[in-house]
């Protein structure tokens, strides 16, 4: 069991962080393929640096011709994604950055293991272990340190886009440190934000104190009443100015923010990234189903916290293992859940997961920043893994 009283920290990064720019582009590619061919295969990696965008990886649509046509259509979609983030800087501009695409056909040896045939069910797209987690410490059933770190940056981004905080630029990081008592957030000890900005804010040179005064009133909106105290430490841009940022300040790569994408270090991670992968890749889809099941367990009141692990072998449909940990907070035997939960989604085969969550849709670019979890399900199927529609059935297990 976790200690009842402790201090814990999580971080988040904004949509304009260079690694998140890469994730957004890779998921834009996934969405472009799934919009044309729901059974498409995509494994796209993106590199962004000073005025340069590079795509590489393996893709497959319904035919070679369709695959080539979708690849040809990608550049304006990629540039539109960068424009939407807000990059019109000298060092990284949505319209002026050089674009190179090295996507090519999927390996036939991978395809033979993943594709279904008359004699076998569709197999997992790779081997590996995946985790899902939920906790009742926030309404989103997410670790508070991470959820509030996300909320800080998404709030600032929304107000930057609206023009209310027009002197902010897209690149940013946040970090929240909490003191926990009896396993629940009791006090915000530190709020750290590093945010790219214009040279001047309200006509004055934007030193760190100036940036803090500019953003602090908006950050205060994020936290529940009573958790910010006179002892809370506030830190903004501790190195001083932060004018050069984004891919011009630091190269970005797909999949380098996997802890930001999941649970902020409060739960295990199997090591596989999400962005740039179609849902046959269990790195993505199995992590989503584990979160879905863990969240429903907690939402049903069966535990305060729940961690689920699942494992696969490439080319095989059935999971190799399924593990449930209720961290000593459970109202039901975890072994019982290990038997019941997989069958609630067709045995957790890759195909059953995709069908249960409706994953063969262009719903992924929106998940590329501010966390894949703790989000509100969309009417078109986005964030379907955040639904709690299994709770009525699960409550009967207590």
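^ Assign residues to that structure.
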């Amino acid at each position: 069991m976790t200690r009842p009283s402790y201090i814990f920290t999580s971080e988040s990064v904004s949509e304009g962080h260079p690694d998140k720019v890469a994730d957004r582009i890779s998921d834009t590619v996934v969405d472009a393929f799934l919009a044309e061919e729901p059974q498409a295969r995509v494994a796209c990696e993106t590199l962004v640096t000073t005025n340069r965008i590079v795509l590489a990886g393996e893709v497959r649509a319904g035919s070679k011709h369709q695959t080539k046509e979708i690849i040809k259509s990608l550049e304006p979609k990629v540039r539109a994604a960068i424009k939407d983030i807000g990059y019109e800087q000298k060092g990284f501009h949505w319209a002026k950055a050089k674009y190179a695409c090295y996507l090519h056909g999927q390996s036939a040896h991978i395809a033979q293991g993943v594709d279904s045939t008359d004699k076998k069910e569709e197999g997992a797209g790779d081997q590996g272990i995946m985790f899902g987690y939920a906790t009742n410490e926030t309404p989103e059933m997410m670790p508070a340190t991470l959820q509030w770190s996300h909320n800080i940056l998404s709030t600032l981004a929304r107000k930057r886009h609206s023009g209310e905080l027009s002197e902010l630029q897209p690149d940013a990081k946040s970090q929240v440190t909490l003191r926990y008592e009896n396993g629940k957030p009791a006090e915000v000890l530190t709020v750290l934000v590093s945010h790219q900005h214009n040279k001047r804010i309200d006509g004055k040179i934007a030193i760190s104190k100036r940036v803090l005064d500019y953003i602090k009133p908006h950050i205060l909106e994020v936290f529940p009443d009573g958790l910010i105290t006179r002892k809370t430490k506030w830190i903004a841009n501790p190195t001083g100015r932060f004018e050069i940022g984004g891919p011009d300040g630091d190269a970005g790569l797909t999949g380098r923010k996997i802890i930001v994408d999941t649970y902020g270090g409060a739960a295990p991670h199997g090591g596989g990234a999400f962005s740039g992968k179609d849902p046959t890749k269990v790195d993505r889809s199995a992590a989503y189903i584990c979160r879905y099941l863990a969240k429903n367990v907690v939402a049903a009141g069966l535990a305060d916290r729940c961690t689920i692990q699942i494992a696969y072998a490439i080319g095989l449909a059935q999971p190799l293992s399924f593990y449930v940990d209720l961290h000593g907070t459970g109202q039901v035997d975890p072994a019982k859940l290990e038997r019941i939960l997989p069958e609630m989604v067709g045995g957790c085969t890759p195909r059953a997961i995709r069908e249960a969550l409706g994953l063969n849709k262009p719903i992924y670019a929106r998940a590329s920043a501010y966390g894949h979890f703790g989000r509100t399900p969309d009417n078109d199927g986005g964030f379907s893994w955040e639904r709690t529609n299994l709770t009525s059935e699960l409550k009967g297990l207590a």
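The chain has a mean pLDDT of 95.
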